[in-house]
Amino acid sequence: MTVNWRRNGIFIFIKMITEMMEIVYVYTKIRSEFGRQCNFSDRPAELHVDIVPDPSLAENFIEKNPVDVFIQVSKDMSEHEVNTERFKTETRGINHLEGGWPKDINSNDLEHTIRYRKKVEKDENYVYTLMQLGGLMEHCIKQNNAINIYEEYFDDQEESVERSEEPSSAKTINVFSDPNVIKRTVSHLSWHPDQGRKLAISYCCLEFQRAADNMSYDSYIWDMENPNKHETVIKPVSPLLCLEYNPKDSHILAGGCYNGQMGYWDTRKGGQAVEMPAIEVGHRDPVYKIIWLQSKTGTECFSASTDGQVTE
Fold first, then answer.
1. Could you tell me the residue range of the domain that residue 12 belongs to?
2. pLDDT band for position 149 (50/70/90)?
3. What residue ranges in 228-295 does DSSP mark as E strands?
């Protein structure tokens, strides 16, 4: 042990060196407060407290061997999926040949068009409407005199935007497969005439001679927003090869069967046919096509079959 004293009373430096480590302690004090000189001496270690182990305390603890601790420091994250309402897009076009005829007027029928023209000309607002259209037409014609719509104004300038023709592509949105155990092919599709959100699909095995005895005859109406569950079941007496919506009454459907019969269904009355003509007056071969006629009643249609007959 080394003791350094300073006469002017600023500090005392004490340095103790042991076998295992070196301890340095600096103590600063005014000399007048020192009092008596400190005497240090070496003596053996003394034991003040001795706590004896208690084996009964071991019963309060459980020994873990080995001890594995896992710590996850990453942030908690969650994933959610939501089936939102489908965005509806549609493309419409028109081939305008003459006049806009009402839905119940067949423009190809000369007698209907003449009768409808005479009816419109007798209307009191007919002359007034023509006078209004005349002013609008005159305004459009005068615009053509100010601007030549056929003149090319930018022939001398190079195209700044490069046009890239992308190949046509299609994306699968929904798959409406046969829900029965024995799968069948789709023989015909018919869109709902008003909403376009429903689709009538007829399912049929085209290899009739190889069809199983327990194969289902049912066809279905699907909702485009819910492809997992069909909306209505159409139950025919024979497999359906075609199924068509009535364009004037969206609740009525007509279907052509494999046995040559035609059936009529009303979705408001369930899946059973509301009318099924006798098989004797039907076709001798399967009915492959049905077309509704543009008539006043909207209840007439044509059917075609491979037997060479077209019936009404």
1. 2-33
2. low
3. 232-234, 240-245, 252-257, 262-266, 287-292
